Amino acid sequence: MKNRRRFLRHETSLFVNKRTTSGVFLSRATDLSASGVFLEPILEPSSLPDVMGLEFEIPKSNVVIRAIGKVVRAGPNDGVGVRFTAMSARDWFLLGHYLGARRPKPAHTAQQKVVTRS
């Protein structure tokens, strides 16, 4: 399976507020990149909309990142993958700076078979 990601993923443990028309719900981000985030539920209803506002603080700072995201992957009871669809230039820059200072999560790639010809 080909890895289609354009940005490196980083393991993390951040609290994230998900803002929906039903209210604000708390999740934990376990995987973060410049293009999105994976969220594990903490306090939320059984179903969420496909699009939501997201807020999280960069660790060891007072910087709050705000974004709009769209659910691109959802599994039963294990969380959701959210792709960022809108973010201010300032927040995009600050998120990129934060991620640039972190070690990326190792990519899961399938081993390729090497064929030699004689």
Overall pLDDT, averaged? Answer: 80
Strand order of the largest sheet: 1-2-3-6-5-4
Profile the largest sheet: 6 strands, antiparallel, barrel
Query: Could you spell the SSE succession in H and E letters?
Result: EEEEEEH
What is the CATH C-level name?
Mainly Beta
Helical content stands at 10-25%
Strand runs, count: 6
What is the count of distinct domains?
1
Under the CATH scheme, the architecture is: Beta Barrel
Describe this structure in words.
Strands 1-2-3-6-5-4 form a six-stranded antiparallel beta barrel. The chain has one helix at residues 89-100; strands at residues 10-20, 23-32, 36-43, 51-57, 64-75, 79-87. It has 118 residues and is mainly beta. It is 10% helix and 48% strand. It has a single domain, classed as Thrombin, subunit H, CATH 2.40.10.
Question: What would a concise description of this structure say?
Answer:
By secondary structure, the protein is mostly beta strands. 10% of the residues lie in helices and 48% in strands.
Descriptive key words:
mainly beta; 6 strands; six-stranded antiparallel barrel; Thrombin, subunit H; disordered C terminus; 1 helix; 48% strand
Helices and strands in order:
Blueprint: E1 10-20, E2 23-32, E3 36-43, E4 51-57, E5 64-75, E6 79-87, H1 89-100
Antiparallel strand pairs: 1-2, 1-4, 2-3, 3-6, 4-5, 5-6
